[in-house]
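hey can u check if this looks right to u? its 698 residues, i copy pasted from the old doc so theres a chance i mangled smth
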Amino acid sequence: MDALAQTRGRRSLRTTFAASIFVMVLITAVSLGVVSHLGARSTTLAVSHTVVEQVAALTEARTHAYLDSPRRAASLVAHQLAQGAVEQGGGLEALLYYTLVAHDELAMVSYGDERGAFTMVKRLADGSLGTKQIRVTEAGREVRWRYRAPGAEVGDILREEVVADDPYDPRARPWYAAGREAFAWTDVYLFYTDKAPGITAATPVVREGQFSGVVSVDLGLRQFSEFLAGLEVGQRGLAVILDGAGHIVGSPDPGDMVREQEDGTLVLRLAGESTVPAVAALAPLLAADPAARTARIERYSSGGEEFLASLLPIDIEPDRRWLIAVVVPEDDFLGQVKSMNRRNGMLGGTLVLLTLLASLALSRHISRALQTLVVEADRMRSLRFDQAVDARSSFREVYQVLDALEGMRTGLRAFERYMPVELVRLLLERHEEPRLQSELRRVTVYFSDIAGFTTVSEQVGPTEMATRLGDYLGTQTHVIQDEKGTVVQYVGDQIMAFWNAPLDVPDHARRACAAALDCQQVVAHLWEDEQEAPSFPTRVGIHTCEVAVGHFGSPDRLYYGAVGDGVNLASRLEGANKFYGTWILVSEDTRTELDGEFEFRWLDRVVVKGRVKPTALFELLGRKGSVAADTLAARDRYEEGLRCYFDRDWDGAESALRQAAALRGDDQAAALFLERCAMARVSPPPAGWDRAHHMEKK
């Protein structure tokens, strides 16, 4: 018998409720309007105050975060210059260039010294990075521009220009004077070249106790205006930011920040000069409290309409204060209340009492049916599919819902194969819907890949390969999940996983290493009873770092994963195994979080493609007590050779590395460093050698 036939003869829950509620609503409908009229306005206004205050607080947090980036960038560049890491010329240009690459929200990074020499890297209109350099010699000064294509490396110069009559002197600029003593912000001003509003962070460079120059970082404010334009404050609300002098330094309309004077020059626009009447009407409020020391909510009129304004002062630095103003028409919040009052009329509290009495009479009759729904829905929410749905009920609608839950159970069981089930449970427990968002978390990222997979694929038919790859990925996934890891992605034969998200895993680095070793054991015994079965040797890369973890993708198609430089590094480590002839590589950050449970070999110091910072590589050999004595002895000789190599002791390095190779047999890493020693004898590394191998391939 089909589900439709089984519902016949059952009473309709909708009809039972509708008949009872209809009588009660007829008696009590008039009284509800009173409650709506008395409470809706005050409640809505209270909510509106909360909304504008929250938007102001959000804007404050975003402003501080936006200003923190140039502060950190300026301090980092100044530190490098103070330490003597780079000098004027190509090294300085590269430092400024890659600082701008790493901070795409910045407009310009520059350094000027007491002689008037100046190096600047600037983001141009087409997205490329151009360099302006002023050299000061005894023969005079030379001003040169270098242009590159968008995305080019610092050395890929498209063209150069020498400017003969450029009078620019950094020492005469406000940022140079502001940054001579300590870190400082300039007032908001129009940039020299772009004539666009911005602010400059400046900090001194003091080398060996002597002031040598000032580093400046320009931050354009038009980009921040895009954030303000994206805020939803009611239907017509907006947020603006004003400096201490009342100039508009952030607005949803960037054109409202600058005005043209009669002589054609551009200046910052005051709030009272705004093209938005509601913003211009703020000027009297600001005049009443020019210091703007306290946050407050103001109610005012403009153009015959009432507005709410949340005024929130924020301290940019001890003697510099800006003001966030969130402006919303009151009718954005009260419009629906007025419409509801017109529709509902006079209502009273009698409806609540009569509805309560009637509900008590009905609840006894329907509680068992509803309880069944609650129990089965709770099973769905907890993703417990071990029991079939109990579809017994005397109500037709309840029966249909229970039958639908049984179908949902089947669908959810299929769904959990495409998404980490722990993540789904966590979202359900928090009553959250997946949306585009992320959070910074320290995780241990894990990448694995099958060595020689292309060759194996050519030897095995597609149907058999799909089955065997499924077995392989399934066994690897079980091992990772047993160690509380989250498998987030399969790309062909590659697995991406991480620990400590979405659930907290305090010992995530240890568990990732344990999973890597266990996965190697599982692969070694996979299909061991089949003589002609393919081999799936697996390489693994592990790195511990802070990345953005959350939901990514598009609004209608999400995936859970992690994004950040650390993810790329973990992937590079997996690929580096082929270069060194190893199977499991971990980063220095992962190694430092472990307490001695595992045996490692310090393998190399490298700069992987896409990064500039060196990192130490370690080969994970196994758990303590399980690694052969010859392997450990070879490890010790290898690391001794590595230290000699970094100390430029080529004889000592070759001797130790040859001993390591003899103990371990086919040691590709030892052979690699023997080749490096031979090359170093012929062409020794330069004086500024960073002791790192720069890997040009992924």
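The two ends are 61 Å apart (CA to CA).
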